[in-house]
Amino acid sequence: MGISIEGLDKLNKLLDSIDRRSESNLMQEFKVIAEDISTDARMLAPVQDGRLRNSIDWRVTKDNRTVAGEVFSQLSYARYVEFGTGIKGAEAGLVRDGVNLTYTMQPWVIPASKMSKETAEQYHFIPIKKNGEVIGYLCHGAKPHPFLYPALQQNKDKVVKISKRAVLKME
Q1: pTM for the whole structure
Q2: CA–CA separation, 63 vs 55, rounded Å?
Q3: Which residue among 3, 79, 89, 138 is least packed, with the fewest CB closer than 10 Å?
Q4: 29-52 residue pLDDT tens
Q5: 46 burial class (0-12, 13-18, 19+ CB within 10 angstroms)?
Q6: In the chain, what is the straight-line distance between the N-terminal and C-terminal CA atoms, in Å?
Q7: CA–CA separation, 40 vs 29, rounded Å?
Q8: Of 32, 25, 21, which Cα lies nearest the Cα of 159?
Q9: Sign (positive/negative) of CA torsion 24, 29, 35, 37?
């Protein structure tokens, strides 16, 4: 003897529809906030030649029932700008929830072929010479110049507000 519930199919379709609308609303709202955060990150990013600033991008993804927004840079050196490097990075004392920051405490040499003399001078790196020719630059690290994390912090209230608004739209 089975139990039948009249209108169960209709109820399931309605619930699925609400789920889809909620996810769609959330994705749209996260696109707005991700764009705002990326704009702020571009404004905060230090500029030398503009590549870092221009590399800042965003995306919103959905995996199963999770919607996530990301703001990022594909440039390999972006993390070094954000968190600093070496002794100078460690001295800054940055703390980020969920990120284990570790720094090398030994100076290193950057080959002269990888850096212009002007850039080395700008960062006060020490020239290493062999037979009178500069073969590299001694580096003790670089101070952090955060741009992504502060952009997120500037917008964290918006993230909460937009998330709530997206969920309420489903009603």
Answers
A1: 0.76
A2: 25
A3: 3
A4: 889 999 999 999 999 999 988 999
A5: exposed
A6: 37
A7: 17
A8: 32
A9: negative
